[in-house]
Amino acid sequence: MPPKSAPIRNPERVRIGRRSVIAGGFATILLRPRTAAYAADAVSFGLTPVFLDSDVQLLSMLETYLAARLGRPVQLVKRRTYQEITAMLLSGQLDAAWVCDDPYVQHEDKFALLAVPLYQHQPLYQTYVIVSDASKAQSFDDIRGSVHAFSDPDSTSGYLVTRYLLALRRTTPEQFFRTSFFTYGHRNVVRAVASGLAESGSMDGYVWDVMRAREPELINRTRVVYRSEELGFPPIVGLKSASETDLAKALSEAFKAMPSYPLGRDILATLGLDGFTDGEPDLYRGTLEKWLLVKAQA
Amino acid sequence: MRSLTHIANWPLAWKVPLLAAGLMIGVAVLISQFVLSRLASDQENNLRLLTSAYLDGVSAAVLPAAQRADVWEAFDALDRARGHYTGVNVRFSILALPNGKVLAASDPQAFPVQSAVPAEVDKRFAPQDGLVIDYTSGRAWLSRSLREGRFSIGRILAEIDISELLRVRRQVLLTLIAVNAALALGFAAIGSFALKRMLEPLSVFSGYVERVRAGRADPIPASKRRGLSREFDRLFDRFNAMARALNDREELASRLAEQEKYAVLGKLASGMAHEVNNPLGGLFNALDTLRRHGDDLHAREATLSLLQRGLSHIRNVVRSSLVNYRRGDSQHSARAVDIDDLRLLIEPDASRKAIRLDWINDIRGSLPVAGESVRQATLNLLINACAATPPGGAVQLRARATDKALMIDVGDQGPGLPEDRVEYLLGGGEDGPAMGGGLGLWIVRRLVADEGAEIALVRQSGLTTIIRIVWPFRDEALQHASVDDRLVEETVHAE
Q1: Which of B127, B144, B169 represents a domain boundary (last residue)?
Q2: Contact A289, A161 (CB under 8 A)
Q3: Which among A15, A176, B92, B406 could bridge B471 via Cys, Cβ 3.0 to 4.6 Å?
Q4: In what order do the strands lie in the sheet with B139-148?
Q5: What is the reported pTM?
Q6: First CA to last CA across chain A, in angstroms?
Q7: How far A88 CA sits from the closest chain B CA (Å)?
Q8: Per the CB < 8 Å rule, is A179 touching B75?
Q9: CA atoms within 13 A on the CB side of B218
Q10: What's the whole-number average pLDDT of chain B?
Q11: Which phi and psi angles does A153 have, rounded to 5°?
């Protein structure tokens, strides 16, 4: 499960300070050429498509903020799937990335936690299984035989938790659902269910909650039939081999210090987060257990 | 008044604007047909281009999804394409797999994933790729096969709402109708106004010409000649010149007629004086004889008889004059005595030239004709006949009645009427007296015309010229004839 800023369709509802926007704009103008010119020196930071589809302005602010905090140009790297970002990080093409907790637990031996988001003051979130508002389903078991929309094969909330629930029932998606498909984005899961393309979907509860406030017309066409227990929020990770470097520390500090800066606060407001904190591997024990069970079934 | 049910009888002020409006409507219909036909053709071409562009874009977008059978990617591409093509209002689009099942549709609730494309929907599309347009329902259906090499990997089906095109077409049609109707009405109104303005002088002219027909030749006053075009100005000038000439001629004719009347009166008075004077000498001689030989019974009786005959002659002459100038009293009827009286009037002329009067009067009773007009016309013909007949000749009068008319022939042994006089006499109408001629023929002409009689020239052996006038009986005269006859009888007997 990646960093999941919900799509921002109503930017005016996000309180972004004028100064920070102006500063962000100037910084972007100044830093972009440098990013290109000094690509070798730039910090490469990976983001998942969910994030990228949401808000170009947010990307710009994040890039500006990190560059200012690190004192180096920052290059945000965007790919369609979690797997691509994970692979790039493992191969050393990225200095750090905001990944889902599923890839983290899969590669816990190689990834080091740099920062964990605080959502509602907790580094936790839930998985939601949603259906169309017109659906008669009231529980997870009621969605049997439906067309199901997953988010991403490496997403905890968008795949792993549902696979885990099916594993507990000794079944598979192919057996449980009439058919299923991946949308590669939590917002896409909402779109698929709201439009009727899918009859049910697995997604990040944090995204659904934020969307309810920002895109009520879309979200009101869906309804939650299952909420998982709280799991560790998708973290910002780097390679363990580089965890003691200045860059890793600076990145960790930059995220944790975000509430202290106007631009950082604007970023947090846009993301609907309270801040970032240090994370411990135990935070993702629940995710690990689910992954192990699913892996064992496979 | 001529009937307006026939277009030929319509006034020009109607016909020209209607013609202009009709032509405009005709042109408008042709132009509208052309414009609408061209619009429909252009719209269809545009629709083909737009839908082709739409299919090109959608095909490129969904091809990878079709290759991988990726439901979400296919849906996302179809869904995003709905609002990205201006002018192509996509109602729904389907990406169908080669097995006929829906991979994804822009309206998943109508066409769920993995469901078969409904047969009633599938049959609307062309069997091969192409565009099917149904103007009745305002829909168009387009399809495009997706291929990878020679293998089909899917088919895009889309229903397009073309009601906007039809709305534009209807709007264009309504606009054309409104504009063309306004133009036609405008041209008709302008044509009517302009023609009315142009024909106004003609209307004035026509009114004054109509007055001439009624016997009044009034010149067109200056107040009705303002703003005239040069053509009408000249026409009015000519008309006024003609009116003045007619008035002059009429006035001259009136004066001549008056003079002729006095001349006839003088002649009549002279004749009457002669007729009275002739027996007066004998009467005075008779008085002398009576004074000297009154004792002689035989002489006295003979003298008294002579006196009676002389006085009777004088009485007859006076009576005929009274009857001749009893204007209006006998205008509604004619009797034999009215014709015979004329003999007394013409006899002095005839006697002077030793002309024999062949007098045949077959009239019986009272005839419903204008007696005064009959007498005047006949008298004028007799005067002319005596004038034309050489001394020792004969003048003939024959009067007889038919069922419907009084027919009077006047014949003479003169050299005959010249051709121009004949034409003048028989021509009728309102022309003035003939140039170089007397007023006799003119008076005859007018009386004949006034009474609706017919005049003809009849030639007969033994007599050179016979002029015949047929006086038709008048119905209203019949009602008054008897009264007038009684009055005449009473007058004669009273004298």
Answers
A1: B169
A2: no
A3: B406
A4: B102-105, B90-96, B151-161, B139-148, B130-134
A5: 0.58
A6: 20
A7: 24
A8: no
A9: 13
A10: 81
A11: -60, -25
